[in-house]
Every structure is written in C-alpha cells, then in structure tokens.
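Intended use. Records like the one below are meant for learning the mapping from a protein sequence to its folded structure. Do not use them to infer anything beyond what is encoded.
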Amino acid sequence: MKSYLNVGSLLNCSMRFLKISLVISLYFIATGLLQGAYVIEGKVNLDGDWQHLIFLATIDHLDDYHAASVDHIINVANIEADGSFVLEGDNLPAYSQFYKLYVIKEEHSEFNACLFVGGDDHNYVHLILNNNSKLKIEADDNSFAPFGDYSINGDEDNQSMKHLNQLVYPGYLFYEIKFPSELRFSQDKLNRDLFNYADSCSNPLASLAALINSDMNTYFDLHQNQYEAFLDRLKEAFPHHPYTLNFERKLHYHSGDFTKQKNWPYFIIAALLGICGFMFYQNKKLKKALSKDSTSVHKVVEFTNQEKKILKAIASGKSNKEIASELFVELSTVKSHINKIYSKLEVKSRNEAILKTKHMDL
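Structure written out for the chain above:
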C-alpha cells in the first residue's frame, strides 16, 4: 500500500512539473522571448567567380541605400555547393527597415563590399526586415546572375520590394544606351514609374524605397509637391522611425529651406556665437598687435656718444674700415660697437639699423 502511494505521489509531482513547464513555455512564446530571431534562407546562382559567402548589410540611413561598406555588414553565411544558404540571428531592431543581401566576386577580399549591378553581375537585393522576419529567396535557375529573376516567400513587404526591384534594376541598363536623347527619355520614364509605384503601393517603406531610387537631384523641383505629400504620409505611418526624420532632412536639403527644420534656432544661435567668438578673437589679436607696435615705437633706446657717431657714419654709407680711420680706433672696435647697436635696435643689418634710426635724434 505504501509503495502505491509513493508511485502516485511521484506521478502527481511529474504532472505538476509538466504543467508548470508548459505554462512557462507558453508565457515565453506569448511574450516573444522565444521568438525574435530572423531567418533568411534560399538559393543563389554561383555560375562564375563568385565567393561562396552571402552578406547581410544594414541600411541605417537613406543615403546608404546604394552604398556598400564593410561597416554596414551585420551577418555573413556560407553558401553551399548547390547555392543554398541560411542566414539567421537575433541582432536586428524590432522595427522594420531596409537591408541589403548580396554576394561578391571571388577576386575580391572577403570583406570587400564592392557591388555590381545589372546584367550578369546583378548580385544583390533590397529587403525589408525586422528581428522576426522569416524569408525564403530563390534565384531563377535560368538566370546567370546570382539572384536573377528571384522568387521570394515570407511576407507582403518583400513581395512589394520584389516588384520595385523588377522596376528599378533594368534602369541600370540605361548606361548601355548610345543616344543621349534615348537615355533622357528612359530616365524620365523610370522616374514616372517610380512615382506611380510610390503612389499606388500600400506599403510606406516600399514606397519610400521607390522615391529613394528616383533622381532627386534632377527631378526634385518637378516633383516637390509629391515628395512633400509622401513625407506627410510617412509621418503618419512611422512618426518615430529614423527614416522619417532622415527623409525630411533630405527634402529640406534639396529645397534649400533649412529654416523649416525644427532645430533651426540652434543653428542660428551657434552661428551668432561663432561670429561673436571670431570678432572677439580678432579684436584681441588687433589689440595685441597695436600694443606691440606701440611698444616698439615708444621704446627708448640709449646710445653712447661713440655709438651715435658710428650710426651717423653708417647712415652716410661709410664702411667699417672708413669709420675706424675717421674715429682713430681699431677695426675690431668698430665691429664691436656695431654689434651692440644691432642688439639695442633689435636688427640684423645696416639697412635695418638705418631705417629704424631714421627719425631718431642722434
């Protein structure tokens, strides 16, 4: 009877432990503590001299959308012989932003982040990711490029980015067009398509990517109202996102209206302080110079009678030998007096001595 009770107690304890473990596990899952790890898997084409490594780079600032630097790399994974890869980690922010997934040429060093675009060297894609993203990307087997006409599964954000990629990447072939007018018309068409995409796309980040791909230097004046309207949309969707402030600053830069920025008073105060500091420094420098000149002008220099005679002789153009003969002294004595005169006047030559004593009463 006692052994039955012990077995029953043990079973009860085990059941309680399992229940507690289940509750704890469900709690962790519900609060996201067991989640928060992104996974990007897929397959790329490695025909050619591509490294068997795939890089994930962050785009923290909109100006870095097309940039490539080792400083931006946040994860690296091996690519298998068949082109398959898995990139995973938990070091991304909770909010979504742009990232770049790419491979590089074998001829470059491991962390050379050079990029090639268009044609057979089309080796990267832009993605929208956060720390919970789960994506699968597969390149088209019929394409020679690492990504080519890729397919993507995971979320609607990156489906939108794929549509944008299909719109943008052919645009890089503009530079193979021979006629300037054909190039200009193609660029105009690409920018119209990008604005149409931004207006029709329901995803604000994908729309932002479209506008970042537009040529703001060339088309800003023509589309300024559309850029500013999209900024309002971005502020409504992501009021605290780093990209929102970043995009606002880009618009202020292109419009030249820096006074619209919220921190413009600080720039004015800093400029005024800088001007005041510069004026104070110049005033102090001027006073010092005047004080030095005043001291040198009014400095009293006393000469002996013999030194005065020698100074007058120097002013008349006589040589040391002629001065010695005139004063009935040794040549070495004349040289000694001249050295003392130079020291008192703080000069190094006869001409300087003559100029400095020109207005003196000798």
